[in-house]
Amino acid sequence: MKKLIIRTGLILNIFVVFSCTSGPIITVDYLNDKYANELSKFTSIQGSYIHYRDQGSGMPLILLHGIGSSLHTWDGWAEILKSDYRVIRLDLPGFGLTGADSTNDYSMKRYISMLHSFLESLDISDFYLAGNSMGGWIAWEYTLDHPKHVKKLILIDAAGFITPDNPPKPMRLSQKFKKVTTKGAPKFMIRKSLKQAYGDKRKVTKELVDRYFELNSRPGNGLAFYTIVTAKHQPRTSGLTQIKVPTLIMWGSEDKKWIDVSHAYLFEELLTNDQLIIYDGVGHLPMEEAPQQTAEDARQFLSNQ
């Protein structure tokens, strides 16, 4: 057993070295050149330099990505919905081009405060709010704390019923191998995680893997990921009964490794003004894996009076 442990550690070290030395040198300038575009804007909020995009006009629709992701996960939704809404998406602190939080504070309280300050900086007081995974968790907790601002809520494979003792399987691996995670997971782990997150594995393209790998390799993002998955979060799911705004719950039927589809029914049970859509054959990222269908369902929900 001891030999097996040593051998496993040696293999992981080799993968870390390989992931850091193969391909282009991943610097902040390299990432900005590749993943920012003419729509990208940056603003200083509570010590973090937030990367965001603001498209379209109409009622603001705020989109929050999940852990290990970035605002690019909403590309399809932004393109489809910008004709009807002012679509605003951002890289949360610790992810994407925003990078590490200056205080290394990735608590839910900090994310909610940062999001509120960000929206105030744009002079936005009334809006629709949507979030996937960790972004969904932030979205519903934000709604608990600021119920007057959120007019409708969309939760996509949202987190919140996760406890530190029972994290998703991919997070357990990240917790176990700190050295790998804090430096940015090697590409083979990113590819495996995406295949676990997608219902249709054929949609996990080289371009998709490269984007997740490179953005997670941004200096500081790996440590942010590790800090979040090892944090002691105080559960507030009992407060879901207090959310009265219309809420759409979206979930992929094949979300089994990240946040099991059974959690969709936990949200449905506690929320009092909700509807649920389960997408057959889709995984943890419905808005990314099936953008056309999910965006059209979102449009119908948001347009209903």
**Count of distinct structural domains:** 1
CATH class: Alpha Beta
Structural class: alpha/beta
Can you give the mean pLDDT?
88
Strand residues, percent: 15-25%
CATH architecture title:
3-Layer(aba) Sandwich
Question: Count of DSSP E strands?
Answer: 8
The CATH topology is given as Rossmann fold
Q: How many H/I helices?
A: 13
Relevant CATH superfamily: Alpha/Beta hydrolase fold, catalytic domain
User: Quick one: overall form?
Assistant: globular
The strand line-up of the biggest sheet is 1-2-4-3-5-6-7-8
Low-confidence stretches: 1-22
The share of residues in helices is 40-55%
Radius of gyration: 19 Å
Order of helices and strands: HHEEEHEHEHEHHHHHEHEHH
* Through-space gap between termini: 62 Å
Characterize the main sheet.
Answer: 8 strands, mixed
List keywords for this structure.
Rossmann fold; single chain; disordered N terminus; globular; alpha/beta
Quick structural overview:
The protein is of the alpha/beta class. The chain contains 13 helices and eight strands.
Task: Report what the structure shows.
With 305 residues, the protein is of the alpha/beta class. It has one domain (2-303): Alpha/Beta hydrolase fold, catalytic domain (Rossmann fold). The protein is 43% helix and 16% strand. It has 13 helices and eight strands. An eight-stranded mixed β-sheet has the order 1-2-4-3-5-6-7-8, sandwiched between helices. α3 (75-81) links the parallel β3 (60-64) and β4 (86-90). α4 (108-121) crosses α5. The longest helix has 20 residues, at 2-21. The radius of gyration is 19 Å and the shape is globular. It starts with a helix and ends with a helix. Mean pLDDT is 88; it is low at 1-22.
